[in-house]
Specification:
The complex is a heterotetramer of chains A (410), B (375), C (300) and D (262).
Chain B: H1 2-12, H2 15-21, E1 30-36, H3 43-62, E2 71-77, H4 82-94, E3 99-101, H5 106-119, E4 122-125, H6 132-135, E5 142-144, H7 149-163, E6 168-173, H8 177-191, E7 198-204, H9 213-222, E8 226-230, H10 233-245, E9 251-254, H11 261-267, E10 275-279, H12 286-299, H13 307-324, H14 329-338, E11 341-343, E12 346-350, E13 356-357, E14 361-367, E15 370-373
Parallel strand pairs in B: 1-2, 1-3, 3-4, 4-5, 6-7, 6-8, 8-9, 9-10
Antiparallel strand pairs in B: 10-14, 11-12, 12-13, 14-15
Chain C: H1 2-32, H2 39-59, H3 64-91, H4 100-120, E1 126-127, H5 147-169, H6 171-181, H7 183-188, H8 193-219, E2 221-222, H9 226-241, H10 246-267, H11 272-286
Antiparallel strand pairs in C: 1-2
Chain D: E1 5-14, E2 17-27, E3 32-36, H1 43-50, E4 58-63, E5 71-72, H2 78-84, E6 86-88, H3 101-108, H4 117-122, H5 125-145, H6 160-172, E7 178-182, H7 190-205, E8 209-213, H8 217-223, E9 226-231, E10 234-239, H9 241-245, H10 248-255
Parallel strand pairs in D: 3-8, 3-9, 6-7, 7-8
Antiparallel strand pairs in D: 1-2, 1-4, 4-5, 9-10
Helix pairs in contact in D: 3-5, 3-6, 5-6
The chains are: A mainly alpha (410), B alpha/beta (375), C mainly alpha (300), D alpha/beta (262).
Amino acid sequence: MISFKDIQKGLLVSLWFVFLTFPLMVIKVNPIERVITWRWQNMGWVALGSFCYYLATKIYKARKLARQQQIKLGLIKERVDWGQRLLSERKIYLPVLIVVGLGFLIFPLVLSTYQTNIMVTALMYVVLGLGLNIVVGVAGLLDLGYVAFYAVGAYSYALLNMHYGLGFWTVLPIGGLLAASFGILLGFPVLRLRGDYLAIVTLGFGEIIRLILENWNSFSHGPSGISNIPRPGFLGLHLSLGHSITYMYYLMILMVLFTIFVVNRLQNSRIGRAWFALREDEIACQAMGIDKTRTKLTAFALGATWAGMVGVIFAAKTTFVNPASFTFLESAIILCIVVLGGMGSIIGVIVAALILILMPEYLRAFSDYRMLVFGAVLVIMMVFRPQGIIANVRRTYKIPDAIKPKLSRK
Amino acid sequence: MKMHHKLLTMITAAALTAGVASGAMAADPIKIGVAGAHSGDLASYGLPTVKAAELVIKDINAKGGINGAKVELLVEDDVCKPEVATNTATKLVSQKVNVVIGHICSGATKAALPIYRDAGVIVMSPSATNPDLTQSGDYPNFYRTIASDDAQARTEVDFAINNLKVKKIAVIHDKGDYGKGLAEFAKKFIEQSGGKAEVVLFEGVTPGAVDYSAVVQKIKRSGAEAVIFGGYHPEASKIVTQIRKKRMKTTFISDDGVKDDTFIKVAGKNAEGVYATGPADVSSNPLTKKYRDKHQKAYKAEPGAFFDNAVAATLALTNALAKAGSTDSAAIAKVLHTQDVATPFGDIRFDKKGDAIGVGFSMYQVKDGKYVQVQ
Amino acid sequence: MDYFVELFFSGLTRGSIYALIALGYTMVYGIIGLINFAHGEIYMIGAFTALITSTVLSIFGFPLPAIVILTLLASAIWASAYGFTVEKLAYQPLRNAPRLSPLISAIGMSMFLQNYVLLAQTSDFLPFPALIPDFDFMEPYAGFIGSSDMVILVTTTVVMLLLTWLIKFTRTGKAMRATAQDRKMAMLVGINVDNIISITFVIGSALAAIGGLLIASHIGQINFYIGFIAGIKAFTAAVLGGIGSIPGAVLGSFILGLTESFATGYVSSDYEDVFAFSLLVLILIFRPAGILGKASIEKV
Amino acid sequence: MEPLLNIIGLTMDFGGIRALDSLDLRVRHGEIVALIGPNGAGKTTFFNCLTGIYKPSAGDLLLTPPGKGTRRLNGLKPNKVTQQGLARTFQNIRLFPNMTVLENVMIGRHCRTRAKVLGAIFRNHKTVLEEKEIVRLSLEILEKIGLADMYDEFAKNLPYGAQRRLEIARALATDPFMLLLDEPAAGMNPQETSELDDLITTIRDDGLSILLIEHDMKLVMSLSDYIFVLDYGKKIAEGTPEEIRNNPAVIKAYLGEDIDNA
């Protein structure tokens, strides 16, 4: 599978990377003390790492090619993706679903408050991911300012609570609606832009929202933020920390289920079809009588609604908001979840959110590498597996019985 | 079994976290949490605190611990992010920590404090300077071994008006939590000075911008005799450098975030004459010396930011634990408020709000490439 | 009036800094229609390489002129190498993928490089040596414009002229224009498109590195994050001028630099970035082709 | 009676280039009209102007649906034009490649149905019925076009000729009374072309009018009731197939010596 030539080329590649990373990886200077530290061992790591990476990609590509050829020759059938299988075969997914469901249900009872708390965070990202998935994954609109709607939700709870004493449950829908209105407000002028321009404009919008929160002290309390935001109440009872977190956990589980339900229904509807079509070919879509702006706007606003609601939950969970929580990096993390999970794939996004958020939490020793890995994930997924870890499942339609017999005469 | 136990606590409710603080058996180790930024771009503010706590606790354990109980450190990273800080705090609380040293950043501290408060855990920060933390009265469980921003702003303004006798002051900040908060206090104090001086310019600069000359031109035009800057040294050195490049003689006064030797090294000759407030010079204090030497020995490097404050916090907390004779937070609080403890800052105790009495700010000036305390 | 002139020069300096970075954006966009999100990071890597080289050389006792030249060379070479590698790793495999794929890949690359430098070097600000000395003859004008501002202005002008010459009159330049217009056609007439794209990345990266060196030396310090902000600003400038157009990138940069400078001077710097981003949003909405760009008609 | 489609003085400029020059054209109800001309004559540009993808520089696009008043199509967005009852196919096939054949046709029903977000979420009775009706109708169209047994394939996996037919099916799903076909026979083998011929005739017999751009002269001559010839954006001739066949201007500009072979 690997020829001598590949090894040779691999060596050349690693040599190139040694050269490339030489100044940054090997030399470290302290210009103040005027000391140079030489870290020669890094050179070896770079050489080894790039060599292995090269061979790995080579093998991956060769295998993929061989498989495709075999499929073409009819030797083997196209392998059904394991993600697809997991979802399409009832005898596989039913037990899995039951076990996972039960696991989530008793999670806070068996594990510590801390674990539950982290899981709440992860579930928040699940919902955020599913929300962004409507925009990026399904409708194909690259939104790099998603965090702006998250901020709108968080600040609407913080401010409405501070000024008018509104409770969590009242603000939850308000936050969603406010975020949706922001989405429409922004979407109206920008959604006719081409894909990559749209990405940049949304990025700009996200930054504008953050900068306004940072600078407009009389409105948002500026960079020092708003503290003492109450946690969600339960029938007016005062909950201890542990109970409050458990309560939030179940709340989030419900929220996730609700989101899955809604997103699933939407995807399998007339509107969802239009979103998918829009992602495939805008011009053909319009020629088929689909109102481009309106359809995009719906996706944008719905995505924003979810960000807004999770924003409210965020504020309630953290009991404190400041603009530093809503940087571009946050948008990038959510995007990473969608890309890793598989654009348009609900189950993929859920799995990706759990992996990306829980992993750094448990592997604290590697937390420094977190953003590095996120960046690499985006590149590697795009290059090698653009459909994500669990590709979007094909939808099936119920064919009326009257037509069925005609179809079977293939 | 564990699940059963857990269910039981669920039913018996309220005691879950309150139970943490009730007196531990002497044989149980005492758990001290250390929380702050230990990774990411703000790690350099958080790691010295971990080292300080480790050095102090090593000494204490070597002498047999506190009242016979060994001390155990639980170090947790919050990356200075509020949302992570709540996770950190929950983790520490669920590990039944007795007291916490941290957090490092004011925002993260604010997010974490309610969790500790509900669990009855005393928290002492070596570095969170936001005035609200002690002055709002929301966090009775909070203490700190650093003076708050308003005290610092007060020192700067008093110095500018009384010592330098300047009439026109430009207040500049970096739009950050710390810098902007400080600048707002400075502005307030100048306006309250009864006409002795006026604020001719109040403006924020964008950290990381490629060039500050427009703001510097604006300072020049405002006719300010002195600039009070709230923020950290990277921006400060850029602004000072551009001021000097424009051949302006405006006096530059800044804060603790600038009173850092890096500032002098980055700004070079332009740093000469710059004023900055910082904790009183304690380098002659034997405790300061002792721990700085230990650090030097253990890590072959100078201690970093807030090291002395962290040593003070660890000493104050362990002393209170020892004197209180229990891990009950009310007992610890009482000791903190009423009894002096020897720290790198001298003998200190804490006022009702939780600020350390006797930890204040002095003014320094850069002379021949060194910060020298102004008498 | 003095104030106006001062602000004007400060805007010009800013503008030329943006221009050096914006040129790279615009060249890459012109040729493969990709917003190279990682370009700001290349600029940052150029600055870091310059810092490392100059410090090492000065510790070894080289004289200042030698340090300046070698540092310039080293940073340009390594930044180009990074630009080249990034293209090969993250963009080339995606040449026929849907339009958003390379953009997402670019965002990933940007995050990766930022954190790579953060981990390999440091998160702290590092002082950057003053490679541009204060010229004596500039002393009378120091109140208006410093020596380094002057050097930056002159360098930008020279680089811009050279680049125009390269693209207008050399074989490579012609091949680049051909590739930009119709990649398939260029391939058919025997242009090695992959090579041309690589060359574009290399040139763009080298320009960014020169920018990195000049700016770092002007400001006196760098850290791993400088690329992101400068990159976004430069991108704004490129779009403002009409992305894909080289004179447009320069014009856009100067307009952005001057706008920011005057906005700071006459209004407030509190909302400096808000101005810049709002400008970007407005331009894209009302004139997506920018000032000098041509509106493209989608073929159906 | 008003013609179904009446184009008066249509002009389209791109920068300095005049792609269409005061073009007049009519399609009557139930007619098959062909638009022919050499490459670059402006035929596809004409379609794009008509369907709202380009904004014409001058001229009137008038549509008179059967039994209704005349309306102007100028300045309407593409989706509005489709709603008015004009549906088109594309010269370079623009299907939704990663959607199934059935879904492609279902997209065509979009503008004739009205389920909203809330309906989609709560799936009320009306929405369910509507959705069922979409599937039924789409399958019916597929049946007619001869693709029903492939309903569950991805569009990208269809053979070329089938893709062209699927485009027609998708256009039919929008309930048009006029179909604009942009080179439907391009790339088809003779067998497929003759099937297409039948298909187009069937569609006309169902009461639709057809405007056709085509290079295959045999198909054009056998199908069309009326032909317009374009060259350099100008109309150079119009008439019945017989008239066009013998028009010297057409022969000169376009058909050349090959007229007899066509």
